[in-house]
Structures are given as C-alpha cells and as structure tokens.
Amino acid sequence: MKPRMLWALALLPALSGCVTPPDLDGPLSDNVTDWRDEIIYQVMTDRFANGDASNDFGVNLADPSDYHGGDWRGLQDRLGYLEQLGVTCLWISPVVKNVEEDAGFSSYHGYWAQDLDRPNPHFGDLSALRELVDAAHARGMKVVLDIVTNHVGQAFFYDINKNGQPDEFLMGQGGEIVPIGQGEPSSDLVRVTEWDPDFDRDGVQSWTSLGPSGLAPAVFVHQPEINRVPPEPWPLGEAWAYNQKGRVTVWQDPEVCGCPAWGCAWDDACRREQEVLGDFPGGLKDLDTRHPYVRATLADSFARWIARADFDGFRIDTLKHVELGFWDDFCPRMRRFALERGKRNFFMFGEAFDGDDNLLGSYTQGQGVDSVFYFSQYYTVFRGALLGDGARTCEIERLHCRRLGCASDPCGEGQAFPALYSDTPKENGVTGEDGLGLGPARLPVSFESNHDVGRLLFFMPPAWTEPEKRAVLHQALAYLLTVDGVPALYYGVEQEFSGGNDPANRETLWDADAYLRPVWKDGHWKAARRTYDGDGDGEDDTLWEPFDTGNPTFHRIAELIALRKAHVALRRGELVFRWSTAGSGGEDHGLVAYERVHPDERALVALNLGKELPSVTRAGGQTMPVGFAPGAVLEDALDPAFTVSVAASGCAAPSGGGCLELELPARGVRILLAR
Ligand SMILES: [Ca+2]
Ligand SMILES: [Ca+2]
Ligand SMILES: [Ca+2]
Ligand SMILES: [Ca+2]
C-alpha cells in the first residue's frame, strides 16, 4: 500500500469525535511579531492541570512515574493564571500517542512515540487540543509543540539469540550464551538485554550455539494492552526504518572511543557516530533519519500537526542525535508549509543537551533550526556563577563572546573570540517587526531549569536560608528576563518548586502535596504546607495554595515580565557588557553588569553574585563606563526609591556615555532605567 493511503486511513479514527475535521490546507493564524518579544512557559501537560476526569485512565498520583491526569482541557482552564503571570507562549509536551509503559515507568512525559498521527488520549482528543490553541490565541498567547524526530518508544527488541523471544542473558567474549543464573559470573561475561543492547557500529549482532549469526533481527511486538505495537505511520513499523545499532554507550564509558577521562571532543567522529546512530537510553529506537522515506514521513506528520492545531513553533528534542543534514531538509519544509498557509515566523528551537558552544553553534549554521536551547548558558550562569561565590563573573561575559564574538578576552587571558553562532537569517525564516530576518545568534532560548534537570532551588546549598535561596532565585529570574534572546520559564518555578532530577522535577501543580515542606515541630520533622508573608507584616502566615498567585516569586516573575514588555531595550536591545570580574576578592568582587541598547532606549542590569559582601563598580580607581549620558538619573525599576546619577568622569566612557559608581548588596540585583 502506498504511504499516502495509509496516512489517510490513520487519520480517520483519530478524527472521530471532532465536529469538523480540520482543513489541512486551509489558512493558519499569524501571531508573532518578533520572537524576542515572547516569554515562553514550558508545561508538562500531565502535571499542570487536570480539566477532564474522563481521560484519567492509568492515573496514579502517588507514583511520580505514572500519569497524573493533567490534560489540554486543564491547561485551557488555567490560561488566566498564565496570563496573570505574564507569559506569552506555551510550550506543551509532545502530543502524539505513546507506548503506555516500559519497565515500570509510564509515558506521561510524551517522549515515547508510537503513532505520530494520533493524539495521546491521556491529554484529550484533537478537538480539545485545537480548542486549547484557539483559546490561547484568543488571549494573544502562542503555542509551541514539543516534537521528537530522532526516535520512537521501545517498539522492538533485537533477537540476539534468535529464539523469537525478548531475553536477558550473559554473554562471553567469544559469543557464548549463558542464561541468567546458570553461569559463573566472570569479568569477561557481559549482561545483554535484547531490549537495549550496547552500541555496535556494525549493527547489533546475533549469536547462536554455533557462533556469530549476522545481524540480529529487529522483532516488533504486539502488546495492545500497553499500546506497545508497531509504530505508525508507515514505514515506522518496518525494521529498515531504524539504525539498529543498539544503545549509545559513549556517555557511560569515556574509554569506548579512546577519549580522555573528561570525555570526547564535541566533534570526535566516534562520539558523533554513537550519538547520531545509537538508540537513546531506555531502549528508545533510533530512526534512520537519513532514509528519504523516513524523512518524508516525519516531515509530513509534523507538518500535519501544524495544520491541525495551528501551532506557532516547535521545540525539537534530541537535536544532537540526528545527523546535521536532516535539519537542513526538515526545517525548510516546515517553514514552507507554515508560510504557504499564511503563518509567518514559525519558530523552531532545538535541544542539544550539551554545554559546548562549538556543538550548539554548529546547529545554528545552514538552513536548520532557528535557535537552540541555550545549555551552555544554563551551565555557565545558572548552575555555575549564580550558585558560586561570585568569583570570575567574566565567565558570564565570555559566554556571550562565544555566541556573538569579542575582540578581546573579558577574563584578560588572551585571545579574541570568534562568534560560534550564526547571525545569518534563514531563508523564509523568522523576522523582527521590521520584516528583516533574525539570525540564530539573536534568538537563543534561555532557561534556568527544564524537565530534564533538577530545579534551581534543588541545587542550592542546604546551608542557605530560605530568604537567601529566594534572593538567588530572583537574581536568576532577573538575569533570564533581562538578557537577550527568548526566555523560557519551566512551569512551577513561580511556585518555588524545588524538585531534584527527573521525575522529582515534574511536580503536580494542582496537588496540595506539592506545596509541603518539612518543618521542625514538637521534637520532630513534619510535612506542613508552605507559607509566605502575604500581608507584609513580617510574618510568614499566608498559606501557600495550589496555583498561588500571591507568593513572592510569582509576584517577582510577573514584575520582571511586565518590565520586559514595557521596555523594548530589554526585549530587542543589543547586549553590551559593562562590568565583570576576573578574580576573587576586591571591592568589585561578584559584580556583573550589562546594558541592553536599543535605538529608542537603554537599560542597565547589575547583579552582585557575591554571597557575603557588598560590591561596587570601582576597580583601580576607575568606575563603570555606561552608555547613559553624564547627568542622567537612573532609577531601579524593582525599587524606585533607589536612584543614582551618571558622572562625566571616572572611567573611559564610551562616546556620548558616562561613568557610574554603583554599589550592590550581596545577592543584590538592580535594573536601571533613565528616569
Ligand atoms: Ca485528565
Ligand atoms: Ca531472544
Ligand atoms: Ca539518531
Ligand atoms: Ca504576614
């Protein structure tokens, strides 16, 4: 049967229940003026809000690895909450039908695709999804869909011993097979699971009692009770659609590729081969994305989701596990599809879970993604500088040098920095308000946490008090919402969630238990509802409610977003560093300051990352050069009682600018605008 006929058949049952099937060729809405104006909010749909009990099958709130019941209807019901926070764009979990469960875990996160053309019934039907997107658009909010092109769920096993069954056994160096429990454990025996065997560049090999027996057959299974059935649409149910090389092992063992203990270089050929062709951990089967039929199927399936639900962009999973050439093919197809239906500025940002700007920057070249999820910033700024003692804030400036280029090293240790991120707009790519294309270097998607890393509060030292932790969280949010690019918040940060690594960082927003904290009472620890000072009397006596909108962090985020919306400099201004420190100690220890410069206005943001002492922009008798004219009075947008004047001398001022001596308390932040 021809692929196109199968697609048509696959669509029919999925559409039952819809009043009107969506017109896949009809016009789409055009919603985005300039992506730098947007504030993304990442929602894990299953954990955000439960608006429809009728889809609560397989739900177990007590188990963090099970479905909890959140759905598109619930999200739609809570759009007012998000509007109050101020976010302008939802990024929702993958919507496609998944394998239900695997090894005791469920697919509540949505990353275990089984059918790319049908919605995940836990989240609702197609009409519920379309209603959510339409309701968001009616409020001026955009919706970005999370997609995976690299792999599907655990759909098949490799029948290494060719007995037709999925097995787990021990195997010696010579290929000898010893069933579990019937052999002596020895160092040259390895445990093999046919669901998830280790990487073999020649393809996963089979063995029989007679010895090597060629490629291990990929055997699809039929377990409809957990929806573990061959993936759809065609050819995703065919073995040849997969690379069949087994699970990437290079992460666990630096010696696999003969690399040093700290790991392989980003462009090491052996590392790249494993990352691109290996199965993703958890037995997620790697698609042969080089095959033209596979490419066509992925492009057609995801384009149909744009048409069905009127999405405004894609967040693309596992970017570095797909060959670079794929993105040069896939992304232009999506841009063309959206543009032909009247949707300009369709935005695609990719996730390469890696702190190396060489690697991240490589994805911004050519005609691939419009932007990347800014992992190098996450490690350098949020996990590094903000949680540190304030030493070497020049590393923050260096981060931006790697992206945009710098003539000299801000740490004073030598060389110039070439820009590693492309500043060349894509053909038919996203533009600013003036219609001119925006290159990836202008659009990194910044985040302080996401569903794959622990919450920022989780990583803060236990010795810090609650107010100290909150101050650092607020510094992080101030940086996130005043730096250039596109900021992305992870749901729950506004409720001060503090979960650790997956799944603890995927708290259930509507569940009162997610708002508990341990308190010492009557001689032992008890779980009690968190409280805060809601009326300003100095006592933390306001009970923290689910979807709380009165707590200090919800309030601070709303304030920062309102500032970003009100000041074009904070959204679209050039980023110019004014102050950073290269060593520890001294009166300027811990200070970092940057200006956002726009033709219409400028803003100055200063943070003291030091945890003990106040710090001042003065070193060697020189103060901070700023772009504001001498005599200008600057006011702190977060604390209007604070003002400071720009001096005519005291530094090497830029043309038209002046000098500023600014003191900040430990963990302090100021956002200064001309009064
Ligand atoms: Ca539900
Ligand atoms: Ca077997
Ligand atoms: Ca791959
Ligand atoms: Ca109070």
Can you give a write-up of this model?
The strands form eleven sheets. Strands 17-16-15-7-2-1-19-18 form an eight-stranded parallel β-sheet. Residues about 1-20 have low confidence and may be disordered. About 25% of the residues lie in helices and about 20% in strands. With about 675 residues, the protein is an alpha+beta fold. Among the domains are: about 155-230, no CATH class; about 575-675, Immunoglobulin-like, CATH 2.60.40. The radius of gyration is 26 Å and the shape is globular. It binds calcium ion (CA) (4 copies). One calcium ion binds near residues 286, 321 and 322.
Layout of helices and strands:
Elements: H1 3-15, E1 40-43, H2 45-48, H3 72-77, H4 79-85, E2 89-92, E3 96-98, E4 101-102, E5 105-106, E6 113-119, H5 126-138, E7 142-147, E8 156-158, E9 168-171, E10 177-179, E11 190-193, E12 205-208, E13 211-215, E14 218-220, H6 269-277, H7 292-309, E15 313-316, H8 324-340, E16 347-350, H9 357-362, E17 371-372, H10 375-385, H11 394-404, E18 445-447, H12 456-459, H13 466-480, E19 486-490, E20 516-521, E21 524-529, E22 531-532, E23 542-543, H14 552-566, H15 568-572, E24 574-579, E25 591-598, E26 601-608, E27 615-616, E28 618-619, E29 622-626, E30 633-636, E31 639-645, E32 658-660, E33 663-664, E34 669-674
Parallel strand pairs: 1-2, 1-19, 2-7, 7-15, 15-16, 16-17, 18-19
Antiparallel strand pairs: 3-6, 4-5, 8-14, 9-10, 9-11, 12-13, 20-21, 22-23, 24-25, 25-26, 26-34, 27-33, 28-29, 29-32, 30-31, 30-34
Residues 159, 161, 163, 165-167, 194 line the site of one calcium ion (CA).
